[in-house]
Each structure stands twice: as C-alpha cells, then as structure tokens.
Design a protein that fits this description.
By secondary structure, the protein is an alpha/beta fold. It has two domains: 135 residues, Aspartate Aminotransferase, domain 1; 248 residues, 3-Layer(aba) Sandwich (Aspartate Aminotransferase, domain 2), CATH 3.40.640.10. Helices cover 36% and strands 14% of the residues. The protein has twelve helices and 15 strands. It has a seven-stranded mixed beta sheet, sandwiched between helices. Bound molecules: pyridoxal-5'-phosphate (PLP). Pyridoxal-5'-phosphate binds next to α5 and α6. The site of pyridoxal-5'-phosphate has 13 residues, from α5 and α6. Keywords: Hydrolase, Pyridine nucleotide biosynthesis, Pyridoxal phosphate. Belongs to the kynureninase family. Pathway: Amino-acid degradation; L-kynurenine degradation; L-alanine and anthranilate from L-kynurenine: step 1/1; Cofactor biosynthesis; NAD(+) biosynthesis; quinolinate from L-kynurenine: step 2/3.
Length: 415
C-alpha cells in the first residue's frame, strides 16, 4: 500500500461530504476521540433540548406535558425516528428500557413464539450482559442455554439439532469489531426453525443496517454509543411486523397495555411494537436522544459507511500494516472491509498501559480484557488528519516505550 501522508489526509478532510457534521458536536480542544463506540460525543443541540424539557415542558407544563409535549408517545416517536437507520418501519421500533432488559423481553417472547423448542443459543465471547441475561432467561423459563462460536459453520452445527428456539447474536462483535452477515445468518437460523435476536449495540449508527430486508425477527440496541444520546441513554427494541400480533413479552407493564388509562385489572397487550414497552421512561434522557436523532435524520448511511471504512483502513495502514504493528501489536479486526464494523481492535499483552499512555497524549481509546486495545471511528465527528495523528501517536507510544511509565499501569474501575 502507498505510504499515507498527513497532507493527503488534510486533502481528504477538505473534500469530505460529512465534514459539516463535526460542527454539530462538542469535543474538548486537543482531544482525538476514538471511543464513540463506548460513549458517543455530545451533540451541540442536546443541552438546549434537555434544558427546554426541564424548564418549559416540566417546569411550566407540569403534568399536562404528558399530553401537550407528547411524553406518552415519546417511546414510539423516537422509535419511528430511529427506524430508518435500522432498515425498519416506524411501527417496528420502540425506545425504552435498556439493552439488558430488552434482551430478556425478546428472548422470552421468542421462546413463546417457538413452542416445542427449548434452547436459547448464544455466541461464545458475546458481551457479558448478553450471556448473563440469557442465563437468567433460561433459569426462569426452564429453557437450556447453549453457546457456539459465531461462525456460520459452527452456528449451523448448533442449529442442526432442531431444538433451538432463539439465537442471540451481536451484529458487530464488541471486542473484535467483526461485522456479521445478518442476511445469511438470519436465513440460516430460519432454515433450521430458529428465531434470531440481533444485538445492534455496535452497529446502530456505525454501519447501514437492514433489519426488514434481512428478514430479522427481533433486535435490541443502545443509543449511548454511536447514536450519541448520552450516558445511560435508553435502549431500543425492534419486532418484525409479522410477529407483533402474537408476541407476548414477560415484563408486561402498563405502558405496553392496550388501554393503559382504562386501568383494567388484567394485562392486554397493545398493538404493534408498543407491547414491548413496560413502565415509565426517562424522559430527560429521551430528550437528549431526540436532539441526537435530529442530526441522524440528515445522515446518508452509505456515505457514512464509505468514510468509516476509509478511516479504519487509514488507521490500520499506519498502526498495523499487513496485520502487525510495532512492538508486536496484532490486528484483531478483520482486514476485509465487508467484515469490519466501525472499529479497529489490536491485541497486545501490555494493552492497558499502552491505551493509558495514548490517553495521556489526548488520544482516547479503551481497553477490553484480556489484551484488546479498542478504537472506535465515528465519521460524523472524526477527520482523516485526526486519525492519521492518532495512529502515528500509537506507533510512537509503542516504539518509545513511554507506556512503561508506572502511572500508566494504574487500573481504574472503568477501563
Ligand atoms: C454496550 C453493550 C451492551 C450494554 O447493555 P446495557 O444494558 O445498555 O448496559 C449490551 N450488549 C452489547 C453487545 C453491548 O455492546
């Protein structure tokens, strides 16, 4: 590959059709932020929108805002705003609760939609909450939890027994950044009679997603990573329209009831994806998501994907050309663009202090045990020159050994 220069990167920044979005985010001076896959940056419109909710809708509107400010319908309204990013129809997505709770709801709903089958199949190495919630759902329902590697051949083997009710998979692996073929795996699962729950935590806002086009059954995801809605922002959940009339979820709260203000003594599910709601939602956090989704409504996901791949390619070319970098850094993320999310992961036994030394230089990535250095690439607020500088800083940190300074080895609670 031809050597990359900083001048070439500056030229690409000047020609970047997404460059104007940078002005819609607030980032501290001197920071190159490669951790938007863990907590997205602050959209400039969020503080104003949140203040408006607090001061006007709550402070002045008080209880009337449930009607006048559309609070009651906010989970549906935000779901409809999010749907185009997911390849879903507006009535197939609702925003509410967190990823963990929504995994539980969809796994149990899937089990009930697939009677006669009793296995919940997960993937080795998935994000811990996906594994733990599957265990919890199995315990409570009497289902059996199994795991397989997320490779098509291994999944096929695990599905072939004909007893898998639901398969739960991450669309993009949080640790390696590997992007799975949603269409092919969904088809494979369906061929073996299983339903699929896709976890979109690392793909919503990171890559184009086409849930309807892939024939997906269910999906869950968060809004605080690539979707930039802030710490602890609510999750979302998708149910394909064909499943909605028969779907019964276990957290059958009043927000998912057909006639909540009739205060009936017994549960009757609402129509559509609304039945996946449970109780009252954090409307202050919803306001932040709303402001962020207004930015997203103007984003062309194909343009975003093109830039994302160009940024990850650039980073790999400098930090780990051919799959290896200085000091034994090893590329973990697939080199093939079609198998890559918007992330680059590198492995190194001293990954933790290397990431800390980089952070001390203003380049923010993160570390995932046991040895993975993770860098997220968010095309809306990252430029080519920044990525060039970040990759160059990584090479310098490793080659100079500055990460060996003992202060970089002190562990914080969150890595
Ligand atoms: C971030 C992430 C989660 C987070 O779950 P919460 O309930 O929001 O804490 C779950 N699954 C995956 C794959 C993730 O990347």
């Amino acid at each position: 590959m031809a050597p990359v220069t900083r001048e070439e990167c500056a030229k690409r920044d000047a020609e970047d059709p997404l460059a104007a979005f940078r002005g819609e985010f607030r980032l501290p001076e001197g920071v190159i932020y490669l951790d938007g896959n863990s907590l997205g940056a602050l959209p400039a419109a969020v503080p104003g929108r949140v203040a408006d909710l607090i001061e006007r809708e709550w402070g002045e509107g008080l209880i009337a805002s449930w009607n006048d400010a559309g609070w009651w319908d906010k989970p549906r309204e935000l779901g409809a705003m999010l749907a185009p990013l997911l390849g879903a129809a507006g009535d197939e997505v609702v925003v509410g609760d967190g990823v963990s709770a929504n995994i539980f709801k969809t796994l149990v709903a899937g089990l009930r939609l697939n009677p006669g089958r009793s296995v919940l199949l997960g993937e080795d190495g998935n994000f811990p909450t996906d594994l733990y919630i599957t265990q919890g759902a199995a315990e409570i329902t009497g289902a059996e939890e199994r795991r397989a590697p997320a490779r098509p051949d291994a999944l096929e083997e695990a599905l072939a027994g004909g007893d898998v009710a639901v398969l739960l998979l991450s669309h993009v692996d949080y640790r390696t950044g590997e992007l799975r073929d949603m269409a092919a795996i969904t088809e494979l699962a369906h061929r073996h009679g299983a339903l699929v729950v896709w976890d979109l935590c690392h793909s919503a806002g990171a890559v184009p997603v086409d849930l309807d086009g892939c024939g997906a059954d269910f999906a869950v995801g968060c809004t605080y990573k690539y979707l930039n809605a802030g710490p602890g922002a609510p999750g979302f959940v998708y149910a394909a329209r064909r499943h909605q009339p028969h779907l019964r979820q276990p957290l059958s709260g009043w927000h998912g009831h057909a006639r909540p203000f009739d205060f009936e003594p017994d549960y009757r599910p609402a129509d559509g994806a609304s039945r996946l709601l449970s109780g009252s939602q954090p409307l202050v956090a919803d306001a932040a998501l709303e402001a962020s989704l207004r930015v997203w409504s103007r984003v062309d996901m194909e343009q975003l994907r093109t830039k994302s791949l160009a940024l990850t390619d650039l980073f790999i070319t400098i930090a780990a050309p051919g799959g290896t970098g200085p000091g034994g850094l090893r590329l973990v993320t697939p080199a093939e663009p079609e198998r890559r999310g918007s992330q680059v992961s590198l492995a190194h036994p001293d990954g933790y202090p290397i990431v800390q030394a980089l952070i001390a230089r203003g380049v923010i990535g993160d570390f995932r045990a046991p040895d993975v250095l993770r860098f997220g690439f968010t095309p809306l607020y990252l430029g080519y020159t920044e990525v060039f500088d970040a990759a160059t800083a990584l090479v310098e940190v490793v080659e100079s050994g500055e990460w060996r300074d003992p202060r970089h080895s002190r562990r914080s609670q969150v890595t």
